[in-house]
Amino acid sequence: MQIIAKVFEIEISTRDLDRECSKIQDLELIFGRKSALKRLIDRCLLYVKAVESGIHVSDLEYENAMLELIEQEEPLGLSSEIVKELSAGELEMLIRRQIMVKKFVKSLCPQDIPISSQKLQEFYEESKEIFQSSERVRCSHILVSNKNGDAKNKAVKLRELIHSAADFNSYSKVCSDCPSNASCGDLGWFHKGKMIPEIDLVAFSMQKGEISQPFSSDYGYHILMLTDRKDFQTIPFDDIKDSLYARLQQIEKEYIISRMVKDLREQYASKITILLPELT
Fold it and tell me: How many whole angstroms separate alpha carbon 214 and alpha carbon 142?
């Protein structure tokens, strides 16, 4: 097992790097391994500061963390197969270090970072393009199942009988093979990608009140009536301000942490040694 880096007296091995790389994509690319090593070094620096700050892990904290990990699909962000390869000592070390880093990071950030109403409003106005509700439609539906003989011909003849919304609602109750027939074929509101591609393509090309010609899918032949649609629209500030407040608080915390890590890298540059030149 090769040692590839050191932070103070903490050694980072190829095995540590491989575990970290398993959490990210593009593992075959050198920048992916560099990124993974950077994250490992940053965590080591935060761990060192946690130790210096007198932070420790009680047995109860460790036991609770172990219980939480048991319930997670990917404990420590790792696959269950990788976790099984860890020795008991390695697992305990990783868990205790994780708890200490989390406690130290929490100590850096106030529980509630105040964000002024003016700052919230400014952020909203500057970023309106990302606060948009996506286009959605509401359709009613008639399906002539492929289980019926000559489904195409039946769908064509049925469409010839439909001249209005009232006609559509009447025929959908008695002629549609879709469970939605119980509610006049109503499929409710949906966004793009929520229905099968054939329905999506037709539904989002129609105008309100329009009734489509029969079209096919693997299920049979469909006839749609577009009953309503809502185009892209900006979400009102009052509807999003609470979630926006929480997001800005998180951004502020991330900034505090990233600034701390940057300062630690500069302060302890002489204590960081990368032994593989291709990872520098």
Answer: 9
